[in-house]
Design brief:
Pfam families: PMEI (PF04043). Belongs to the PMEI family. Keywords: Disulfide bond, Signal. One of its GO terms (cellular component) is extracellular region. This is Pectinesterase inhibitor 12. The relative contact order is 0.14. The model has no long low-confidence stretch (mean pLDDT 93). The termini are far apart. The protein has 6 helices and no strands. Helices cover 82% and strands 0% of the residues. It is mainly alpha-helical and 175 residues long. The protein has a single domain, classed as Up-down Bundle (Butyryl-CoA Dehydrogenase, subunit A, domain 3). The structure holds 2-acetamido-2-deoxy-beta-D-glucopyranose (2 copies).
C-alpha cells in the first residue's frame, strides 16, 4: 500500500517534470524558429535554471521563472564586476566604465523585480515597460565602453543578459 502510494507520487512528479520539459522545449523550438537571435540550446538551459521552471504548467509560469533567472544573472554580473574592480587589473578608464556598469546592473535587477510584480498583477504593458528598462540598462553598460573606444572585459556577461531578456519578449508574444 505504502509502496503503491509512493509510486503514484513518483509518477505524478515525473509527469509534472516532463510536462514542464515539453513546455520549455516546445517554446524554445518555436522561439528559435521565429527569432534569429534566440538559440535553442541557450533558451532551454536558460529556462531550466530556475527550480520553479520544473513545475511550470503554462507559459506564464515559465515567464516568471525566466525573469527570476535573469535577476540571478544580473546580480551575478554585479558580483563579477565588483570582483574585477577589486583586482585592479585594468586602468582608470575601464574602471570608470565598470563603475557605470555596476549602477546599470543594479538598476536592471530592480527593473526585473518590478517586471515580476507587474506580471503577478496581470499588468503586461507595465511588465514590458520594466523589462525594456532592464534591457536598456544592460545595453548602457556596453555603450559606455563603446563611446570611450574601450574593450569591455564583461562583454560575455552583458551578451548573456541581452539574450536572456530576448527570451522574455519571445515568451510574451506567445501568451
Ligand atoms: C498557470 O499555472 C499556474 C499554476 O502552475 C496557475 O496558478 C496560473 O493561474 C496559470 N496561469 C494561466 C494563465 O493559465
Ligand atoms: C566569452 O565567450 C567566448 C565564446 O562563448 C569564449 O570563447 C570566451 O572565453 C569568453 N570570454 C570570457 C572572458 O569569458
Amino acid at each position: 500500500m505504502k509502496f503503491v502510494a509512493l509510486f503514484v507520487i513518483f509518477l505524478l512528479l515525473l509527469n509534472g517534470f516532463s510536462t514542464a520539459q515539453t513546455l520549455i522545449q516546445d517554446f524554445c523550438k518555436k522561439a528559435a524558429a521565429k527569432h534569429r537571435d534566440i538559440k535553442y540550446d541557450f533558451c532551454v538551459s536558460s529556462l531550466q535554471q530556475d527550480p520553479q521552471s520544473k513545475s511550470a504548467t503554462n507559459l506564464t509560469d515559465l515567464l516568471i521563472a525566466s525573469i527570476k533567472t535573469d535577476a540571478v544573472k544580473t546580480t551575478n554580473v554585479v558580483g563579477i564586476v565588483n570582483q574585477i574592480i577589486k583586482e585592479k587589473k585594468y586602468g582608470k578608464d575601464i574602471e570608470s566604465s565598470l563603475d557605470a556598469c555596476l549602477s546599470c546592473f543594479y538598476e536592471a535587477t530592480d527593473e526585473l523585480k518590478l517586471t515580476v510584480a507587474s506580471i503577478k498583477s496581470h499588468d503586461y504593458s507595465d511588465a514590458n515597460w520594466h523589462m525594456s528598462n532592464a534591457l536598456y540598462s544592460s545595453e548602457d553598460c556596453d555603450l559606455d565602453f563603446k563611446q570611450r573606444g574601450l574593450q569591455s572585459p564583461i562583454t560575455n556577461e552583458t551578451n548573456v543578459v541581452y539574450y536572456k531578456i530576448l527570451i522574455y519578449f519571445a515568451l510574451t508574444e506567445m501568451l
